[in-house]
Amino acid sequence: MRRDPIVEALVALIHDTCESDLPSAIKDRAVSHLIDSFGCAIGALDQRVAPICHTLARASACDTGASVIGLATRTTPEIAAFTNTSLIRSLDFNDTGIGGHPSDMLGALIAIAETSNVSGRDLIRGMHCAYEAFAGLRRAGLRLRRQHVDQLQVVLGAVCGCAAILRLNDDQIRHAISLALVPNVPLRVTRTGSLSDWKGSATAHAAMSAVFAARLASLGMTAPATPFTGTAGLYELLKIEPWDHTKISPLSGSRPALCSVGLKRFPAEYSAQGPIAMAISMRDEISTAQIESVVVALHYDGWHEIGGGQGDREEKWRPINRESADHSLPFLVASALHDGDISLSTYDKTRLHDPRILALVDSIRVTHDQALTQRHAGEIPAWPSRMTIRSRNGDVLVRDTDSPCGHPNNPMSAYELRTKFDSLCGNRLDKSSREALIHVIETLPEGEQLGALLTKLRAIPVSVAR
Known about the structure:
By secondary structure, this protein is an alpha+beta fold. The chain is about 50% helix and about 10% strand.
């Protein structure tokens, strides 16, 4: 039978990650990303997507199913994956890798791990596999922005992690990958114009689909053998050249994928992290009333995503909801200059229409700088940016930055990560409850079962006394 090179490379990657010993650096990083992701999910329980997902999960109650954060009853593994990933992703505060948020895959991995009754160590190994597949696919050529395809690496990375946790055989893995790809080529319209709730749940659908594909394959469902290279496969559909399957492997002598992913200091799209920090530092040198103009230069991907480069300038300069505002560089820079911070309260409806903020928004221009694009390129993107502020009296302030706080080359400290976690969870969990939750996460690499963690996640209150 004809084989698909990308599928075969992913099968080999799964074998490699399942059979190799996990170094302490990978375990430690996995723990940090779990703490960060659960903090983001708990902080999102106030968002409008939470009751939608919880209602869906209650309607699909399943005593032998998987757990949902903030819900006492279990649901199907697919709906649990969808709900938990929606919560992790909702605030746009979770980790960022090469072209997306690898932690968007965690909802799938946790659901599969729970329903398969595996250990915490197996979950960590599944994370390692999923993150390596996510990064390897991007290195191989999965960059489909210009083909208007969105976040395809999430469903493919997640199904690899699920296959590793389930210990599927080679044929089952091949079918699982095909079952994840063939029905799930998402449209990038999700991230253009005025953004909707689906911006935060599109990858949740990918996580759900990965669980469904892995479970079907484990039960014997077959799928097309050549989903990438075959007639009417992905390459023909998108009219693209075949990807370089040799790059889908752990990089020899390089940092593992889990150690090459950044965490966020601010709840905003990652290309905005540097400009936000620069704006906060520069506001001490100039009064907002004295600002005549602000020019922010970005690499191409940042300009395209949050600077009006998709032909969506109107939506970026006048965001109408949270989903659009955290992807609006003009709004984020104006808010940082005005407030000295970007927090969850930045997106309150009254702030979106605040005339003081909008006056600053109108003074901001965002440009694409080819030199920054070149600096951004590489195995681990640098995320460079430059800001120029001109005052009414003619003074000019200029800042230039790479590697914002949380970047793999400028990582958050344990204290900074804990501070972020506490700020996201503090209105729902007291200090002792937060300590207990972090403790069970930290013991997962030791082989602890997932029961204690999942019990605590189900018990988190959805309603908060005011």
